[in-house]
Amino acid sequence: MRTRVIIVSLTMVLIGAAVAWASVGMVTEVKPVDGVAEVRPTGSTTWKRLAPLQALKEGDVIRTSRKASVVVMYANSKESATITAAVSPYTVKSLRKKNGQDGKAQELLNEVA
User: What is the pLDDT of residues 87-106, one digit of tens each?
Assistant: First the structure.
């Protein structure tokens, strides 16, 4: 029984790490003040409302209207992006350090996996 629990736990950690690995960043803040903030996932034609802590993949497109804003924190760097109607639509990019190494968030994910 204990072995089964350990195997299930490790499987869940690996699945979570795989999902996080595919993500290049996440939404850290959504301010839908008099407007909306939406994302169109890569390969989709449908726009969906954004939520805080939502994972983002390279190629996802974010749009905001009127006074809405979104802050995206990239996993592979210390960079972030603030998206407002003035810079909307915004395409999520994959950022890597110049020396090819991943940032601190990715290092932590690698330790878990």
Answer: 999 999 886 554 454 555 55
**Distance between CA 70 and CA 65 in Å, rounded?**
11
Q: Rounded to whole angstroms, what are the CA distances from 102 to 55, 64, 75, 109?
A: 17, 29, 8, 10
101: nearest Cα among 92, 110, 93 = 110
User: Cα–Cα distance between 76 and 24 in angstroms, integer?
Assistant: 7
Domain boundaries in the chain? Answer: 24-93
Strands (DSSP E) along 1-113, which ranges? 25-31, 37-40, 48-49, 55-56, 61-64, 69-74, 80-84, 90-91
CA distances from 27 to 3, 9, 24, 38, 82 (A): 37, 27, 11, 11, 10
The tokens for 5 are 């629990």
10 to 14, 16, 77, 85, 110: CA distances (angstroms): 6, 10, 27, 42, 14
Pick the more confident residue, 96 or 16: 96
Residue 5, pLDDT > 80, answer: no
